[in-house]
Write a structure and sequence with these properties.
By secondary structure, this protein is of the alpha+beta class. The chain folds into three domains: about 110 residues, no CATH class; about 120 residues, no CATH class; about 120 residues, no CATH class. The protein is about 40% helix and about 15% strand. The chain contains twelve helices and 13 strands. A hairpin with a 2-residue loop joins strand 12 and strand 13. The radius of gyration is 34 Å and the shape is elongated. The N and C termini lie far apart (about 140 Å).
Length: about 400
Amino acid sequence: MKASMDVIRKTAGEMIDQLTEELEIILEEKQKTELHEKYGILVDALEAAGYRYDYRESEPGHIVLAPDGTHEIAGYLQFESWGDIKDWLEDTIAEGTDISERVDRALYPFKFDYTLEEEMFRGNGDRYAIYHVDEDTSGKQHLFMNMAMVKEDGITIDAANYKCVYSGRLHENEKLDDLYAVFNDNPPADYKAHSMSVSDVIITNRGGDMQAYYVDRFGFAELPEFAAQREKILDIVPEIENVDYENDLTCISFYAAECAEFPVMGEVHYDLTLPEALEAYEKIPSERMHGLKCVGFDLKDGSDYEGMQSLMIEGKIQKKFLNSIPGFRENSYVQNAISRVEKYLEERHPNVENPLESNKKVDNEKNISEEKNEKELNIQMKPIPKKKRGEMSL
């Protein structure tokens, strides 16, 4: 009986410990859900800064933040309120460090046009990205397989079968082995995927040198095509660097004309910068007989859309029309010009009409011009009466 009671006590103790542990997990999950419902963005920003909310140590009026593996040297942080945490996060953004960018993205995602992965492909500093096999694709056939097995089975590693799970700044002396150690032993708080494993892929961009590597059983195997495949998937359009939009006339120049429909009629000024064209436009009297005065651009970028096109007609920017044409909508020179003319109109002509009215007016002028030409043509085509002998033609 004594031996049986010992077994019962031991078993009961183990069951109680197990239940206690499971209850703590359930309670923590419930706290996480409630915390994210109230402070989700701040929690995400904390993790981006390298800290996790300590559910066991925190209580109302005493918030404890535990550092992740890469920030453990800084130790625990304590705050009295979430307002204090918000202020600390704002200060972190203002510091301008590598962490600042991640925190800024977590707090204010609407400020950024590109993901961290896209920033790597756009050459915005030295960066890296980690990719895991997307198990919803055919890539699952080589999940956790080393490169020898991949080659033996004739499998092709394709970027279309992967998804980016994390991307960050690549430090000066950071190597692939360092990244492997971090994402196995001490992952960042905002890293939500499994530890780095065989079949994962790492892309690095150091000084514009883009390289991709397959995480092998021992070391890393180069993937020459992976980075280009991924860039194609993202549809990255390289930015034009160091462009002097104010004075560079090699790719685009501007003109001011008395007549928008036929710039060669009446007064016209070619090969100007945009400020010069706007100044010339202001000096052209609006009552001139040759039509509606305008500012236009002459595109010289080697594309299929080269040539002259109206940018502003009688104080109305042609933004809707220009953006309806892909070659203009995706051209940084044209888009920059549109933005600058919009700013110009806001400052000089704040009460401009709807841009659509401009198009209607041009159409009306065109119709009037066509009707006039048709009448003149009809007059010219009327049969000329035969002259009587001795009669002179007028």
